Amino acid sequence: MNKKANPNTSAGNRRLLPMLLGIVVVLLIGVLVFVTTKGTASETAELNDLPNYTDVKGTIVVDGLKYEKQPHLGSENAKVKVIEFADFKCPACKKWTAAYLDTFIKDYVDTGKVQLYFMNYAFLDRDSYLAASAGEAIYKQSNEKFWEYMHKLYENQGDESKIWATRKFILNFVKKNIGGIDYTKFEQDLKNQTYMYDVKEDFKIAGSYGVNGTPKFMVDGILLPDSSYDGLTAAIEAGLAEAQQ
Fold this sequence. Notes:
About 55% of the residues lie in helices and about 10% in strands. With about 240 residues, it is α+β, with helices and mostly antiparallel strands.
């Protein structure tokens, strides 16, 4: 004999189901809000860690190009000195490096004709300043490792319009890609913004010589009007010819 369904039980079940669904929805929203808030707080902390030129203490006096303070390649006896002004966030700098730097080093630096210097012109955003200060920290440990950092950071360059060269990114990047340095010291230098004065000094000096974008090149103290490879090599050849007179 079949039992008849209790209408009160069925009605109760129908009322319970929406309540359970409501609870699940509320829990899901709570989880989503927690994750989003946590992510936003983390991103805010990352942004707060970025340096600002206005926070850099000390008086900067522009009194020359200060070649002795810059990362360099080539013989000190080279007849021509070339400075590249660059920003690690700059896509054009990345393209120039990928297209021309190795050829330039082979034809002009390794042959003893040119001594090449790198000078920061970090202007795109605050993570430009941080990436530049990281480069300075590495350079102070090893000139050779600086050039490795430069090459590899360009290869891993993020979107110019976004903040990507954060402290977290740079620390992870250097740990994975740049061996042979005192990482603990590097980490402290980055966190303490030890070399932000040097980055701002480069920026001020470059600006005083007319640098207003990147990449830019200077040959024997004269800023070139464009960044073309042909223009750079023509200026170098002229400098070499003048040195032989």
